[in-house]
Each structure stands twice: as structure tokens, then as C-alpha cells.
Specification:
Blueprint lengths: L2 H11 L3 H10 L5 H10 L4 E4 L2 H15 L10 E4 L6 H11 L3 E6 L11 H17 L6 E4 L3 H5 L3 H9 L12 H10 L7 H4 L7
Parallel strand pairs: 1-2, 1-3, 3-4
Length: 204
């Protein structure tokens, strides 16, 4: 990244340029900066998501939605930041590189119920989500009520396709990016959750 980009990332995060440079180099997944720069060069918006499974589902879903004549806007490039806590950094980098962007955050409202230590998990989930959202402009951020899997459970054709590929939304076969991608490619957009389809129209 150029010094100008590093300075913009530092200003976005309210940190030093040295720390911004170090974080951009070490905290983001390999290829993230290169992919974001390519999106900016080609005038493509970027949807920043938490992890690989989020990207695996949303890239084919939003790509399929883009094929519908009524949509009429550019297909977002979906990039995984590598975790919830990295989302503000990822957004700062994408913005500094000149791409339009939007961020999807798992609210994890009910995630604490699935944890062994519910009290601690509830506090951690709330704190982590609040910390991320605080650093992002509201118009550039969509917060899901719970984890992405809760939205996917409302997508019947995806759930059926995922089962055909030996995957599941909870349990030992969950969170498999290859199975999620294959299921999303086979599923219909007609019964996909509107909250996910709306990401196609999200922008700054």
C-alpha cells in the first residue's frame, strides 16, 4: 500500500500510521489488499464479510441476483476480512483504495445461547458487535440479527442443496466453504432471504 493509503487507513481507525501499516500487512487474509485494489480499479463495489463461509455463500447469491434484469447495479466483490474484529480495518483499507463498500456484520443475538458459558458469551458477543459497529458509518453497515446461518435457514432451496452436498448449518459438517458455495450456486434466488438479497443494493 502507498503511504497515502496507509495514512487514510490510520485516520479511519484513529491510530498511528505505523500501526495501520502493520495491521494491514498482518491482520488481513492473504490477497485481501490486492483483491480490493482490483475491485477499485474496475469500479466494482466491495461487500466486506467476516469469514470464508460468508463469502462462499454471498458471492454466488449476489452474482445470480445480478443476472436478473430488474437489479441493474454492479455485482459486489465479496471479500472476507478474517473475523469480526478485523471488519473496521478491512473497510478502512477498501475505502482508502478507492472502492465503494459495505460491511455485513453478524449480530449473534442468539449465539450466546449455543455457548457452554452463556453469560460470558452473551457479554462477549454484544461487546464485539458494538465495538465493530461503532467504527463504521451506519449507512455502510448491515447488522444481521444473528449469525449468517440463521438467515440461511430461511432459504429453503439453499438448505436442500446443502444437504445434498453433505453439509449442514449446525453440527460437524457446518461452516464448510466449499459446500456452502456449491449449495448457493444451485439454490434459487426466488426464495432467498430479502435481507441477503438487499446486500446487492447496499452502498455508501
Amino acid at each position: 500500500m502507498t503511504e497515502d493509503v496507509v495514512a487514510q487507513v490510520a485516520a479511519f481507525l484513529g491510530t498511528s500510521t505505523a500501526r495501520a501499516r502493520r495491521l494491514a500487512r498482518t491482520a488481513l487474509p492473504p490477497g485481501f489488499v490486492r483483491s480490493a485494489a482490483a475491485a477499485a480499479t474496475h469500479g466494482c463495489p466491495v461487500l466486506v464479510v467476516e469469514g470464508a463461509t460468508d463469502a462462499a455463500v454471498l458471492a454466488p447469491l449476489l452474482g445470480a441476483a445480478a443476472a436478473e434484469p430488474s437489479r441493474g447495479t454492479a455485482t459486489p466483490v465479496v471479500l472476507a476480512a478474517g473475523g469480526k474484529h478485523v471488519l473496521p480495518l478491512a473497510a478502512a483499507v477498501v475505502q482508502a483504495l478507492g472502492a465503494d463498500w459495505h460491511v455485513l456484520v453478524d449480530g449473534d443475538a442468539d449465539g450466546w445461547r449455543r455457548a457452554a458459558n452463556r453469560s460470558r458469551a452473551r457479554a462477549v458477543h454484544r461487546r464485539s458487535t458494538a465495538g465493530v459497529v461503532r467504527l463504521l458509518p451506519p449507512q455502510r453497515c448491515t447488522v444481521l440479527p444473528d449469525a449468517l446461518e440463521a438467515e440461511l435457514a430461511r432459504w429453503p432451496s439453499f438448505v436442500a442443496a446443502l444437504q445434498r452436498h453433505g453439509g449442514e448449518l449446525t453440527g460437524p459438517a457446518a461452516k464448510d466453504p466449499a459446500r456452502y458455495a456449491a449449495a448457493a450456486a444451485e439454490a434459487r434466488t426466488a426464495d432467498a432471504p430479502e435481507r441477503l438479497l438487499a446486500l446487492r443494493r447496499s452502498g455508501g
